[in-house]
Amino acid sequence: MASKILSPASTLSRPVRASLQCLRRQPIYPPTPVQHQPQRRSISAYGYEQAKALTFTDYGDPPSVLSLHSHSISPAHGNLMTLRFLASPINPADINQIQGVYPSKPRFTTSLSTASPIAVAGNEGVAEIIALGDKVKSEGFKRGDWVVMNGPGFGTWRTHASATTADVVKLEDSAREGITPIQAGTISINPCTAYRMLKDFVDLKEGDWFIQNGANSGVGRAAIQLGKQWGLKSINVIRARDDKAKEEQLKQDLLSIGADVVITDTELQSQGIRDQAKEWTSGGRSPILLALNCVNGKAATAMAKLLSSDAHFVTYGAMSKQPLTIPASMLIFKDVHFHGFWVSKWAEKHPEAKKSTVEDVLGLIKKGKFRDTPVEEIAWEWETKGEDLIGKVKDTLEGYREGKGVFVFGKT
Ligand SMILES: NC(=O)c1ccc[n+]([C@@H]2O[C@H](COP(=O)([O-])OP(=O)(O)OC[C@H]3O[C@@H](n4cnc5c(N)ncnc54)[C@H](OP(=O)(O)O)[C@@H]3O)[C@@H](O)[C@H]2O)c1
C-alpha cells in the first residue's frame, strides 16, 4: 500500500388530560449555527488515490460480514471523477441491504482489486470531487463540487470512489453555501421522504392534521418540521421509554421543533385516546387526514383507528418487523386508503422533482427553519481501524438511540 501524501487544506461541516401526559408545542429554536470545518484531503503519487471501504462479499449480520478493504483508484479520465467522501449516514435501509432483505441490491464488483466480487455498504452521503476527466468537465462539473448519490446501491461507506456523472447529483454552489457536510450528507433520503409523503397522497391545507409513528426518526423529525412550515398540525407517536425522564426529554425535543402533540405508543393504545384526539382536533371538526407509518404492529393499527373517513395511511418502513393488520371495517365503512411509499422508486421516476425537493429543504436549513436530526458523529480518519467502524455499525442495530450514526471523514 502506497503511503498517503497530504495536499494543502481545502475548505470544506394544547389542554391535555393528565393521564396521557401529552405535550403541546413550543416555539421553534433559533437556527442551528453552521460551521465549516477545514479538512485536508490526500492524494498519492502519480494521481492514484488510496482508498478504504467497508465492504461485504455475502449478505448477513453486518458485524459478521463487513470488513475494511483497502485499494487504489486510478487517475480520473474521460467520463470518470474521483470522489472523496465527506459524510455518510448509517440508515436502517443500509443495514437491511447488508442483511440481504432490502429490494435495492448493492453493486458486487471485482473492480476494487479483489478476486471475488465485493460490495461497498451505504446508500447515502455527500462527497467532494477531487479529480475529474475532460468529459465530466464538459458536463459542468469542477474540482471541489459537492455531489450526493443519484440513487441507492452506490456504496457510500468509503473514503474515496470512482464515479460517473450518472452516479451523482451535483449540489449547486448557491444551494450548498452555508451547508455542513452532515446536513448535505443526510438530506437526500429522509427529508425527501417526509416531504413527498406530506405532499403527494392528500391535499393537506393549513390547519389540517396528520399523525405519524417513529416520530423521533430522521423522517419523523423532517415531517414535523416541514408540516410546521406548511401550517399543518401533527400528532406524533414515539416508543415509550423505561426511563421516564428521557421519554419526557424526547417529547420536549419534538415539541421544540414544531410537533403539536407527542404521545407514546402505550398512550396511543390506552382507553380514552379517541376522546383525547377529539379534544386536540376541535371536537373532531378538524379531521386527521393522513397517517405516516414506519413501525407496523398493533400501534400502527391503533394509529389508523384515529383517522377520519376517506383519510390516507402511508406505510414507508417496518421498524417493529411486525405485520400491518387492518380491520375490514376501516376499509368498508371508513374507506381509508392504504398506500406504500419508497423514495428510491419515486426519485427514479421524478429526478427533477427530487432535485427541487432537496433544494427546498436546503433553503429551509439556510433560513434556520429546519433543524438537523441529532447525530452521533463517527470520525473516520485514514488510520481508523475497521473493527472500530464496524463496532459503530453494530451499535446502530440497538434501538432507543439518541442520534443517527454518521461517518464523518477527516484526514483520509
Ligand atoms: N420508504 C422510504 O422511502 C424510506 C425512506 C427513508 C426511511 N425509510 C424508513 O423509515 C424508517 C425510519 O428511518 P430513519 O432513517 O428516519 O430512522 P432513524 O433516524 O435511524 O431512527 C430509527 C427510528 O426507528 C425506531 N425504531 C427502532 N427500532 C424500533 C422497533 N423495534 N419498533 C419500533 N420503532 C423502532 C426508533 O425509535 P426509538 O428511538 O424508540 O428506538 C427511531 O424512531 C425506517 O424504517 C426506514 O427504513 C423509508
UniProtKB/TrEMBL annotation:
Keywords: Fatty acid biosynthesis, Fatty acid metabolism, Lipid biosynthesis, Lipid metabolism, Mitochondrion, NADP, Oxidoreductase, Transit peptide. GO terms for molecular function: enoyl-[acyl-carrier-protein] reductase (NADPH) activity. SUPFAM superfamilies: GroES-like, NAD(P)-binding Rossmann-fold domains. Gene3D superfamilies: Medium-chain alcohol dehydrogenases, catalytic domain, NAD(P)-binding Rossmann-like Domain. It catalyses: a 2,3-saturated acyl-[ACP] + NADP(+) = a (2E)-enoyl-[ACP] + NADPH + H(+). It is found in: Mitochondrion. It is an enzyme of class 1 (oxidoreductase). Its main location: mitochondrion. Signal peptide: none annotated. It comes from the Eukaryota. InterPro entries: ADH-like_C, ADH-like_N, ER, GroES-like_sf, Mito_Enoyl-ACP_Reductase, NAD(P)-bd_dom_sf. It holds the Pfam family ADH_N. Belongs to the zinc-containing alcohol dehydrogenase family. Quinone oxidoreductase subfamily. PANTHER family: ENOYL-[ACYL-CARRIER-PROTEIN] REDUCTASE, MITOCHONDRIAL. This is enoyl-[acyl-carrier-protein] reductase.
